[in-house]
Amino acid sequence: MKEMGKRLKYLREGIGVSQEKLAKMLGTTQSSINRYENGQSEPTVELFRKYADLFDVSMDYIFCRSDAPEGKMYEYHPELPPDKEKMRQFLEMCFQPGTPANIKLKESMLRIMEEKE
User: Fold this and answer.
1) Which of 82, 59, 86 is nearest to 70 (CA)?
2) How is the chain split into domains, by residue range?
3) 60: which of 3, 37, 38, 71 fits an S-S bond (Cβ 3.0–4.6 Å)?
4) Cα–Cα distance, 65 to 110 (Å, whole number)
5) How far apart are CA 18 and CA 41, in angstroms?
């Protein structure tokens, strides 16, 4: 909680406003801001959202899960199933036959599947 309080204080000082001014901006009290920054209490989830929106940072940054203000970027790279024919059948079922957009999308998906070999 102390680290998060330091992060909140750093954000506030970064824009050069007092605790009182920030409290007005967030719709809370100066004493609450002081307690958050000193790690004596935690803001509500709604107030955390207001901090994130006001300072244009991610919740990961506020919670000290990341030192990058934009937060962590999660990527998922699933493995293709071993049976390509089953995957091809699945793709065929996902797209309505005959519509131009679906044909192009299906072709792209099949091409990606082929490239992953």
Assistant:
1) 59
2) 2-62, 84-115
3) 71
4) 37
5) 19
Task: Answer yes or no: pTM beyond 0.85.
Answer: no
CATH class of 2-62: mainly alpha
Show pLDDT as tens, one digit a residue, over the chain (117 residues). 789 999 999 999 988 999 999 999 999 999 999 999 999 999 999 999 999 989 888 888 899 888 888 765 556 555 655 567 777 777 677 766 666 666 777 777 777 777 655
DSSP alpha helix (H) spans, the chain: 2-14, 19-26, 30-37, 45-55, 59-62, 84-94, 100-115
Contact 5, 13 (CB under 8 A): no
**Torsion angles phi and psi, residue 16, rounded to 5:** 70, 40
